[in-house]
Amino acid sequence: MQGRCGTGLTLVYPVLLGFLRMKRYGDHRIPGRLFVVEGIDGSGKSTQLMLLHQWLKAEGYGVVFSEWNSSPLVKDTTKRGKKKQLLTPATFSLIHATDFADRTERNIIPLLKAGAVVLCDRYIYTAFARDASRGMESEWIRELYAFAVKPTVAFYFRVPLEVAMKRINDARAGFKYYEAGMDLGLSDDPDESFRLFQGRILEEYDKMIPEFGLTVIDATLPIETQQQEMRLMVLAKLTQAKQLRVAP
Questions:
Q1: Angle CA(51)–CA(226)–CA(100) in degrees, nearest 5?
Q2: Phi (first) and psi of residue 65, to 5 degrees
Q3: What is the pTM of this model?
Q4: What is the domain extent for residue 145?
Q5: Residue 77: CB atoms within 10 Å
Q6: Which terminus of the chain, N or C, has less C-beta within 10 A?
Q7: Burial of residue 224, with CB atoms counted within 10 A of its CB: 0-12 exposed, 13-18 middle, 19 or more buried
Q8: Is residue 243 in some structural domain?
Q9: In the chain, how many domains are there?
Q10: Tell me: the pLDDT tens digits for 2-37?
Q11: Which residues contact 38 (CB under 8 A, 6 or more apart)?
């Protein structure tokens, strides 16, 4: 793996291995609140999170944002691997888990302990859906992320595959190599490969709705309607948290 993706992974494995010893997933007593968005590419989740972020800031909340695959520890390694199309399903899993572990340790947990509202554009459920769709064992993937903090609310923006494909094609030309699952050899046609791969991901998300209590948002509704649903649920959780802090 080192020869194919550079030395970056060799340097960051200790971060991931340390977190694997910490069983953290579950309800917690950290004063901050964690809200995450999930969904396939083209579901509109990032737009909704951006709108929520702006609204919370305008309402005076201390709010911070964390994005999938943004840790400087592995960002360059991931970029090189994708550019040269060298990432295997196992390497993908380990790189993203290391990215998540680093962000959890350096940003997410400290900010939650400080009482901040943390917003995550994709969370562990992205790994569960994508890695399983690439053939990795679901039980192994869940164990890999056992250190994660359970979100206050995990929003899943469910959208029909054809709608997502149209949104992406309207926004830019064509699908990215890994986004379309071209590494799996499902089809030589990027559109068909995207349809097959993202279809697998949709199936994985549907399995996770009851398993993890994901809050489903109909991503075909008007943007304003989706945002209103989010705000009502987020405000209810923040109000509840405030009441718990002032309770005798």
A1: 60
A2: -125, 135
A3: 0.86
A4: 2-232
A5: 22
A6: C
A7: exposed
A8: no
A9: 1
A10: 334 443 444 444 455 555 555 555 556 788 999 999
A11: 45, 122, 123, 125, 126, 129, 154, 155, 156, 157, 205, 214
What pLDDT is stored for residue 80 in this prediction? 84
Helix (H) or strand (E) holding 135: none
Q: Give the residues of the chain that fall short of pLDDT 70.
A: 1-28, 243-248
Residue 70 belongs to domain with CATH number: 3.40.50.300
Model pLDDT, residue 3: 36
Spatial contact of 179 and 194, defined as CB atoms under 8 Å apart: yes
- As a three-state string, the secondary structure of 128-195 is HHHHHHCCCCHHHHHHHCCCCCCCCEEEEEECCHHHHHHHHHHHCCCCCCCCCCHHHCCCCCHHHHHH
Angstrom distance (rounded) from CA 52 to CA 41:
19
DSSP-derived pairing of the beta strands 63-67 and 33-38 = unpaired
Q: Give the per-residue pLDDT at 114.
A: 93
Q: How many residues does the chain have?
A: 248
Report the 10 Å Cβ neighbour count for 73: 19
User: Which pLDDT belongs to residue 4?
Assistant: 40
At 167 the pLDDT is 93
Q: What's residue 45's pLDDT?
A: 96
Sign of CA dihedral 49, 204, 201, 72: positive
Euclidean distance between CA atoms 153 and 135, whole angstroms: 28
Q: Decide if 167 contacts 42 (C-beta within 8 A).
A: yes
Residue listed under structure tokens 């609140």:
33
Residue 169 lies in a domain: yes
Q: Is residue 197 part of a domain?
A: yes
Question: Could you give the CA distance from residue 8 to residue 237 in angstroms, rounded to a whole number?
Answer: 39
Is 173 inside a domain boundary? yes
